[in-house]
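Board notes (copied after class):
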Amino acid sequence: TMASTTSDSVTIIEFPATRTACMDHIGPPARIGKTIQRFIAWRKIHHLHPSKHATFNIVWCNPDDTPPDDFRMGLAVATDLDLTDEDHETGLSSITLPAGRYAKLRHVGSDQTLGDSALALYRDWLPQSGETPGDFPLIFQRIAFYPDVADHEAITDILLPLA
């Protein structure tokens, strides 16, 4: 667990515009597993393996203050693939993650503590940084994740767009 976030643990990066295919999960966070399985199945059909195509989550809302039925999170994969009508019918859409300056905090460990790290970025680092959040949601870039690594060895870069 990351108890606090210091300015040394956050870096400012230039993030390139990244075209993705995104499948939104809408509904209780506890049911996201079914959406993940559908997303993985679609990725396999299109040969978009995580080792070659970056994986992202777009955090459209905070699960702590959003009613469960209104919760929304995007599951995205970097690709230039043109989506078909069939892809759209399965819930996929093309979303470009915007280029620009981002604050990056690396989280190592379980998703159970990922929210704590994201909160620390907003609560601890952002106010003392002098930076202003940009006009796009928080992004989780999944660097290493289950089943390729054990849960406690998962690596996620938390990306906060900056104005």
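Comment from the instructor: The radius of gyration is 16 Å. DSSP finds three helices and eight strands in the chain.
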